[in-house]
Amino acid sequence: MAGYRERQARLAGAVVWARTGVAEDELPVLPDGCMDLIWTEGRLVVAGPDTAAHHPDPGGTEFAGFRFAPGTAPAVLGVPAAEVRDRRVDLAELWPSARVRALVGALDEAADRPAALEAAVLRRAAERPAPDPALGRVVAALDAGRPVRYVAEHAGWTARTLHRRSLAAFGYGPKTLARVLRLQRGLARARAGVPLAEAAAGAGYADQAHFTREVRELTGLTPGGLLRDAR
């Protein structure tokens, strides 16, 4: 039987999660601007930032995952986000294979794999330079609905620099990141029981029809379909 649980990680904005199995009718993983490091039965996989809904293969596999806050994974993992956008890549393709084998072996033997994965990520983060705090301010400004030009000016960057930095940190440009963050705001309101028209307005959409178009373009589903399947 499939099941899922998550908790806040000890790295700012991150989440540790665990899943047992993927059901046939599982909801897709929706774009959220995040990257994940996932252990699954003898493998470590980097899930890049998505620009469309990702449909996991159904099955009884066990998973443990670490979901990084937007813009923070590249500094820890040492790979630009754009290189893994819309991809699931074995960590052994990005890190020395001996190091990955040792880490996978330790996770295979761990009694609490999510906790062991979190500890491994924290050790790695301590070895690496911290993410640029300006990237967090970019996320906050875009999530607040600020225009891209405003975000660039207040970061002290040109529009071209903002775009280049966004590709490396988030996997896509600031306009796409803004769309993804707005999608998540709208869906969060709708899941909380806010009527779709109000959820759309509160998230920054022109109207409910605009919200529906954006959800369909980014997920392949309608807001109503997502909410119905979630229930």
From TrEMBL:
It comes from Nocardia jiangsuensis. The keyword Calcium does not apply. Keywords: DNA-binding, Transcription, Transcription regulation. Gene3D superfamilies: Homeodomain-like (1.10.10.60). PANTHER family: BLL1074 PROTEIN, HTH-TYPE TRANSCRIPTIONAL ACTIVATOR RHAS-RELATED. It comes from the Bacteria. PROSITE patterns: HTH_ARAC_FAMILY_1 (PS00041), HTH_ARAC_FAMILY_2 (PS01124). This is Helix-turn-helix domain-containing protein. The lineage of its organism: Bacteria, Bacillati, Actinomycetota, Actinomycetes, Mycobacteriales. The keyword DNA-binding applies. Pfam families: DUF6597, HTH_18. Residues 132-229 form the HTH araC/xylS-type domain. InterPro entries: AraC_XylS_family_regulators (IPR050204), DUF6597 (IPR046532), HTH_AraC (IPR018060), HTH_AraC-typ_CS (IPR018062).
